[in-house]
Amino acid sequence: MSAPLLSIRDLSVVVRGDQGPRTLLDRVSLDLAPGEILGLVGESGSGKSLLCRSLVQLLPSRAISVTQGEVRMGGRDLLALSEAQMQQVRGAEIGMIFQNPSSHLDPLMRVGDQIVEGLRFHRRLDRAAAKAEAIALMGQVGFTDPPRQFAAYPHEFSGGMRQRAMIAVALACDPKILIADEPTTALDVTIQAQILRLLMELRERRGLSIILITHDLGVVAQTCDRIAVMRQGRVVEVGDKRALLARPAHAYTRALIASHPSMPVTNECSEVDDQADEAKVASLPPPSAVPARPLVEIDDLHIRYPLPGGLFGRRRSFSAVKGVSLQIRPGETVGIVGESGSGKSTLARAMLGLTPIADGHVTFDGVTLRGQPRVALAKIRHQAAMVFQDPFNSLNPRLTISQTLTEVLRVQGKVPSAAIPARVVELLALVELDPELAGRRPRQLSGGQCQRAGIARALAVDPRLIVADECVAALDVTIQAQIVALFQRLVKTMELTLVFIAHDLAIVRHLCERVVVMHHGRIVEEGPCAEVFERPREAYTAALIAAIPDIDPERRLLAPPVEKLAS
Amino acid sequence: MSAPVSTQRVNRTLIAGLVIVGGFVLAALAAPLIAPYDPIFQDGAARIQSPSLAHPFGTDNFGRDILSRIIYGARVDLQMAVIGVFFPLVIGTVIGAIAGFFGGLIDAVLMRLIDIILAFPFLVLMLSIIAILGPGLSSFYIAMALVGWVSYARLIRAQILVLKNADYAVAAVSLGFSRPRVLFRHLLPNSVAGSLVFCMSDAVLVLLSGAAISYLGLGVQPPTAEWGIMVAEGQAFLSQAWWITLFPGLSIVLLAFGFSMIGDALGEAMGVHE
Amino acid sequence: MHRYSFILMRPLQFVPVVFGVSLITFILVRMIPGDPARVLLGARATPTAIANIRAQFGLDEPLWLQYLYFLRNLANGEMGMSIVYRIDVLRLIGTRIEPTFALILCSVLLSILIAVPLAAIAARNQGRPVDHAIRFVSTFGIGFPPFWLGLMLIMLLAVRFPIFPVSGYGETLGDKLAHLVLPALTIALSLSTVLLRSLRAAMVDWLKSDVATAARARGMPESIVFWRHVLPNSIAPTINLLAVNIGWLIGGTVVIESIFALPGMGQLLVRAIFSRDYMVVQGIAMVFACATVLVNFLADIATVAADPRVKL
């Protein structure tokens, strides 16, 4: 390795709290070589973002401070610089892009002006030259019509284009190092693939060094040269990408790799996936001989939301679901996948009678929702339950877990009141939640614990059907793997029918027998998981699969062509 | 994070607010015990006396002791603030919850009604209603109930509209909970925090309005001791006897400050921004 | 649709509001106990005059028909006669608009001049003594009764130190402005506390926001972060707050004009209430209500201009 461009030595960061100081970063040492992409991997709370913030002295609170260590760059210790000197480093030497471009771009300022700001401040260009340069930069990061888009506001762009805008804003200061903090986490996979591709191109073209912070080992495997794994403020393992992924030395790295939901393909794909694969095989229910009556039958379903505005004349509406037909048989495990805006969540809610139907039919166990709404709803409410994406917001914040479960049991009336406390304990055991936690409120629990409580609440109905809407999307990978394993066990032991909605194809691949791919409110493809994922018939499905960053560096990710900008 | 520091500050603010408001409540309750003089007793020999040991806040043009009048005045002003907040709070919460939860025609009609009431400047509508009902404290309460519910209704409605789409509300519906149960057990308890905080700033507003209306001569009638009237009575003697006007005004400021501090502390503790 | 096309559409939404306002003022006056004609004309009214009024307003007709008559008269620009001034209510109000309008304008400008710099100082020194001091003063200031504050200002700046006139309104522009200083200051001190608190809170939030962090990460000095990113984003929501408070502000002028003897609509309203000049009360309530609707409309335009995301 050549002489490092940036060298972090024994960096420790501490927060002063009421119970004395707490160490957030513990003697972290890392090097970044010129032109290198270093992946910084870890779960939430591992300190990976904080590490990058402390490099440029942008700590999130006054209570947090660097206690020891140094950060050497170009013969200086960055930590010893004054605020004025630091301003010359920020942006001009070390640039940053962030997870959520929508909140990091100034909503009141034209995108072009935000790029111009850095050009004028750091590179001292005059207004005209700055504008010309900004337009050139916008072209470089993939804007289709820079002169026109220069004058647009951030909200007029899609998430992917906003991230490109933020990259352009960072590049305008002409940094040597770019810190990318979860730059693709909020994006759809196909867009993620494009942004990652762009970052790699920029590295080639500008000789940029990049620190890529992510929780997704697949992203790292596809883009980085070296990987540093962080946990609880420490770097547990650093090394060359291939070596580290093939022979992880630290137990935590091994756990992280094992939890990563990857697409199992032909055998070459190593030992790391075995565990998950076995679980999947075991979870497959015995193939049903008799085709039973479908539990849920959806026939040419249309769902429209009215759009605000349009006081006079035509009332505009947005079609979320356009003519979907689908049958779900009892005991089946069906995955519904698609990118944001594909209508998958709307479809899920329609199945449970939670959203008005514009046209078509939803039939639950032989009763149609529009034909006999009362009977059908009563049936659905007693036989189906939902698990939500956000583990905190799906539980009433004022009620303890046991109050929540008790209420459901009482309203459902399937368990005699005397038996309710015992049933609550049983439910908690079923989702592997410590009974000690029953008296806590959602805010006092972790995300994974909350999600288990959410599943327990669904199970309290004693349902035949569970609809899980992106229920692992907000969780760390290791927790994700645990929840998926929990679902596998529940499905196997309880004769449940599971509709599992996710944007993550790999998880669906592990968990479900059948998959339904949605795009723009329509079903583009459906069939048994193995078939659809290995031999997708539709180009869209193929693109979706190809865009998943695989943990195996040899299976390159394919970015679909640049999204067409809606004008 | 800096949580402990700010919790400490919140507690200090809350305690200070409670001490101030509590002090006035105690003074009002124990008025006959602690007031040195009868609030409406006119001492012809002690007219317009500047503050002294015998009369710490001085006397007015009828020779009445200002301090005693302020202590008795606390009864009226506190009562105005409490009743003036209570009825609008209850009426507004019910109306706002119904409008937000059921939506549709009920919501549309109630919202138009609110738009119309809000089109009138608050004090102008209050004064017009009082003009018709005739001056007096009960007119003030009626006018307050007719006008004041609007803010609470809007607050609660907005909260309910947001929470109606919260996952736990959708979950409650999907679990077969009845509509009243969803509204009263799940939505309402989670949406009142904002109104409870607003109550405190509203108490300030009501206190100031009540005093202003009395100052204009349309509220409590003389010779009852009330801070707004006392300011009005001192106005004519402003240049020669500042104390007649100053002390009742300061009492209003202090009580209002107490309410504001409680409101601030509650707001920060509950994470509510006005 | 163009972002500003609501300017053409919105006035149509005022129609139901203005109808509602007229209905409420109509009901208010009809609720007065006793014979409306006698109430409207006062005790000295001749039987002929009472008969005329009865005919004019159709007081023997059913209530809904009376309301239609009332609307018809309104459409002709007639709100009835003032029993005290013996002239048409609308013309009477017309002579009183200028001082009220000038007072409100000066108060708003003055309160912005007070609130914005103080909020900026407090927010940029969050948690430091300056911030605590400014917050303390603003929390304290919210509880100042305007009528009392006005009297204190008179005592201090007109009586003790005769810098400004005690009361009344002038003839020339300079004279008028001199007379407006104290009343406007009284209102501004109250209004600015409300603005200050909300503006400071918004600024503190935006200083901690991702937008500010991103700007700092680009090496922007704190002054650019504040003036170019934090301030514009904090002001947008305050426009709305100002509009919401305009109703409160107009109410405040009622009291303030009475204290400072400013010959405006507020003073007229208070006098009309005491002299039971109900047609004037009704007229002023309607004019004030329409003005509030108009101000909110202007605030909507300002909000759309300040924030490119807002669509109405």
UniProtKB/TrEMBL annotation, chain A:
It is found in: Cell inner membrane. One of its GO terms (molecular function) is ATP binding. InterPro entries: AAA+_ATPase, ABC_Ni/Peptide_Import, ABC_transporter-like_ATP-bd, ABC_transporter-like_CS, Oligopep_ABC_C, P-loop_NTPase. PANTHER family: ATPASE AAA-TYPE CORE DOMAIN-CONTAINING PROTEIN, OLIGOPEPTIDE TRANSPORT ATP-BINDING PROTEIN APPD. NCBIfam families: PRK10419.1, PRK11308.1. It holds the Pfam family ABC_tran. It comes from the Bacteria. It is a peripheral membrane protein. Residues 8-257, 296-545 form the ABC transporter domain. This is Peptide/nickel transport system ATP-binding protein. The keyword Cell inner membrane applies. Keywords: ATP-binding, Cell inner membrane, Cell membrane, Membrane, Nucleotide-binding, Translocase, Transport. CDD domains: ABC_NikE_OppD_transporters (cd03257). It comes from Ancylobacter vacuolatus.
Automatic annotation (TrEMBL), chain B:
The chain crosses the membrane at residues 12-35, 81-106, 113-133, 139-156, 187-220, 240-262. PROSITE patterns: ABC_TM1. Its main location: membrane. It comes from the Bacteria. It is a multi-pass membrane protein. Keywords: Cell membrane, Membrane, Peptide transport, Protein transport, Transmembrane, Transmembrane helix, Transport. Residues 74-263 form the ABC transmembrane type-1 domain. It is found in: Cell membrane. The keyword Transmembrane helix applies. PANTHER family: D,D-DIPEPTIDE TRANSPORT SYSTEM PERMEASE PROTEIN DDPC-RELATED, OLIGOPEPTIDE TRANSPORT SYSTEM PERMEASE PROTEIN APPC. Belongs to the binding-protein-dependent transport system permease family. This is Peptide/nickel transport system permease protein. It comes from Ancylobacter vacuolatus. The lineage of its organism: Bacteria, Pseudomonadati, Pseudomonadota, Alphaproteobacteria, Hyphomicrobiales.
TrEMBL record, chain C:
SUPFAM superfamilies: MetI-like. Keywords: Cell membrane, Membrane, Transmembrane, Transmembrane helix, Transport. It is found in: Cell membrane. Belongs to the binding-protein-dependent transport system permease family. This is Peptide/nickel transport system permease protein. The chain crosses the membrane at residues 12-32, 100-121, 133-157, 177-196, 238-260, 280-306. Gene3D superfamilies: MetI-like. The lineage of its organism: Bacteria, Pseudomonadati, Pseudomonadota, Alphaproteobacteria, Hyphomicrobiales.
